């Protein structure tokens, strides 16, 4: 049953990638030659790309990420461990791909005339992804490509396990704090968002180092 669910999730992800690319390509005739593709922390456009890039090339990024995240476990020296958390890995992969589809779709919608706060929308999507991954961090098993990979977590499975359990909790807390920053003005909100996303990672790495020193 678990294996069947994994296959269904992978098929759904691939189907969404195909549908997403077709939708993006269908926008091409209606778009201006130049499409805004980057916004600063104030929510102002600071970079443009040709509509061919925005509708045909940028939508290929989620596909590239899907392929990369599919290949990495095969290349990992600890690839056997992926079987121990395959459902978790597949959910994380699907979530990351979905987020990339949403982020690359937003500029197209904006260029079509939809009144969107792109900077705020991207921060919201990233915060939700951070919280989602945090909920699954404790289930990630020892490997070289996924999770918090520093010398001391790679050197000890016990350090790896305890680090990811704490890291997951801190990521959820940080993600929730980052969500609150969406209510703040753009500049201070951006700073709070970055703090909510980066501090949990820094604290988790520091914790893993001292835990390793304690155990060895």
From TrEMBL:
<feature type="transmembrane region" description="Helical">
    <location>
        <begin position="190"/>
        <end position="212"/>
    </location>
</feature>
<keyword id="KW-1133">Transmembrane helix</keyword>
<keyword id="KW-0812">Transmembrane</keyword>
<feature type="transmembrane region" description="Helical">
    <location>
        <begin position="51"/>
        <end position="75"/>
    </location>
</feature>
<feature type="transmembrane region" description="Helical">
    <location>
        <begin position="166"/>
        <end position="184"/>
    </location>
</feature>
<feature type="transmembrane region" description="Helical">
    <location>
        <begin position="95"/>
        <end position="114"/>
    </location>
</feature>
<keyword id="KW-0472">Membrane</keyword>
<dbReference type="InterPro" id="IPR026272">
    <property type="entry name" value="SdpI"/>
</dbReference>
<dbReference type="Pfam" id="PF13630">
    <property type="entry name" value="SdpI"/>
</dbReference>
<dbReference type="GO" id="GO:0009636">
    <property type="term" value="P:response to toxic substance"/>
</dbReference>
<dbReference type="Pfam" id="PF07853">
    <property type="entry name" value="DUF1648"/>
</dbReference>
<dbReference type="InterPro" id="IPR025962">
    <property type="entry name" value="SdpI/YhfL"/>
</dbReference>
<protein>
    <recommendedName>
        <fullName>DUF1648 domain-containing protein</fullName>
    </recommendedName>
</protein>
<feature type="transmembrane region" description="Helical">
    <location>
        <begin position="12"/>
        <end position="31"/>
    </location>
</feature>
<feature type="transmembrane region" description="Helical">
    <location>
        <begin position="120"/>
        <end position="138"/>
    </location>
</feature>
<feature type="domain" description="DUF1648">
    <location>
        <begin position="16"/>
        <end position="61"/>
    </location>
</feature>
<dbReference type="InterPro" id="IPR012867">
    <property type="entry name" value="DUF1648"/>
</dbReference>
């Amino acid at each position: 049953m678990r294996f069947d669910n994994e296959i269904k999730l992978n098929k759904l992800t691939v189907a969404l990638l195909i549908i997403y690319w077709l939708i993006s390509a269908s926008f091409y005739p209606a778009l201006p030659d130049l499409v805004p593709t980057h916004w600063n922390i104030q929510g102002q456009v600071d970079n443009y790309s040709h509509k061919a890039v925005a509708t045909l090339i940028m939508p290929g990024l989620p596909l590239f990420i899907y392929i990369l995240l599919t290949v990495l476990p095969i290349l990992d020296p600890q690839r056997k461990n992926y079987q121990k958390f395959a459902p978790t890995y597949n959910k994380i992969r699907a979530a990351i791909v979905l987020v990339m589809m949403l982020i690359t779709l937003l500029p197209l919608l904006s260029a079509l005339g939809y009144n969107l706060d792109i900077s705020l929308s991207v921060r919201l999507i990233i915060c939700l992804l951070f919280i989602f991954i945090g909920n699954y961090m404790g289930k990630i098993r020892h490997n070289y490509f996924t999770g918090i990979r520093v010398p001391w977590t790679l050197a000890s499975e016990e350090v790896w396990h305890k680090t990811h359990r704490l890291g997951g909790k801190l990521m959820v807390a940080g993600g929730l704090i980052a969500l609150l920053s969406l209510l703040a003005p753009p500049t201070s909100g951006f700073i709070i968002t970055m703090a909510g996303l980066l501090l949990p990672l820094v604290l988790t790495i520091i914790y893993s180092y001292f835990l390793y020193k304690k155990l060895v």
